[in-house]
Amino acid sequence: MSQQYRAYLVGENGVFRSAEAFEASSDTSALTFAQQFTRHGKVEVWQLGRKIAVLEPEQSPRTLHTRQ
């Protein structure tokens, strides 16, 4: 049975910038799905009025190649 969730993209000022509604079979599945949005910033995941988690932005490792 699927449940309704929302992933909110949180702006730097703490205000929600956008939201994505989706269905998932569990909180774990919802968090896995919502993880994709962290490439745009911090994401809050909610199931109705219950906050599931706050996901931090993706940290893409930067590799600096220098030749000397």
What attributes does this structure have?
mainly beta, disordered C terminus, four-stranded antiparallel sheet, globular, 68 residues, 43% strand
Write up what this structure looks like.
The structure is a single chain. With 68 residues, this protein is mainly beta. The protein is 12% helix and 43% strand. The protein has one helix and four strands; from the N terminus they run ββαββ. It has a four-stranded antiparallel beta sheet. The longest helix has 8 residues. The chain is globular and about 35 Å long. The termini are far apart. The C terminus is likely disordered.
Q: Could you tell me the strand content as a percent range?
A: 35-45%
Mean of all residue-level pLDDT scores: 87
From the spread of the alpha carbons, the general shape counts as globular
What's the SSE pattern?
EEHEE
Helix content: 10-25%
Distance between the termini: 59 Å
Number of helices: 1
Radius of gyration: 15 Å
State the secondary-structure class.
Answer: mainly beta
Strand arrangement across the biggest beta sheet: 2-1-3-4
Number of strands: 4
How many strands, what sense, and barrel or not for the largest sheet?
4 strands, antiparallel
Low-confidence stretches: 60-68
